[in-house]
Specification:
heterodimer; A: mainly alpha; Four Helix Bundle (Hemerythrin (Met), subunit A); about 85% helix; B: mainly alpha; 5 helices
Amino acid sequence: MNRSLVILIGALALGGAIFAGSYFTARQATVACCTRPADDLSWLRTEFHVSEADLARIRELHEGYRPKCAELCAKIAAKQSELNSALGGGTNSTAEVGVKLDELAALRAQCQAQMLQHFTAVSQAMPPDQGRRYLAEMQRLTLGHHGQFEHSMSDEAGHEHHH
Amino acid sequence: MKENHQFSDDPQISTLLRQARPAPELPPRFQQQVWGRIEEAEAPASSGSWLDGLANLLLRPSFALTAAAIMLVAGVLAGTLDGRQAARHDAQMNYLASVEPPAVR
């Protein structure tokens, strides 16, 4: 092979190795340094520039919300297993399945309402601008994907009708 | 032979001979072309192809060190930026997992 080509390929490989090595080392170091897995609220502190005083208030709200959320989650899980049992019962249990689905949907709606209420309370504990941004972001992150799913389903249904 | 030597030493005969020799017509820009060829021959041995030029450049210690330093700094910068994004995303997911139960997703 041409000597110059070997030099060029070697230089490219060496340059790539230097770039990759420094990239992965710096990335690992940054992730290790900036992530605080023990603190659920670290994202709020960095993303919404929440002061220590506001963060203490938010932490209080957060700690108060968690048990209520866990209680509803347990109810949803229990209802889900009831629904699974009803579904496993055979084809004559349509009415019972319908009732269980309604109850499950009601519990989920209750859980979502409680969650939104918590987001509103947290947003009010922040400076107004950050609070509005937080609320919008949380609605997008939590309820947004349901909307996207329904939207994609309705698009697909529309497509089917056109065919 | 002896007679021939005697003639060649004679300046008058030499002058006559030089005048009698026909001087050929030089092509246009002959002198310029000659100097061009001399300069070309005296130029440092350039390999001719861009690949050889690039290889020669890469083998220069100052260039190699500068290029390595640039790659190192670029890697550190890109890694730091990406790491910050990843840490931000992890923190966001961590918070989200603590407030949005999987049952309602």
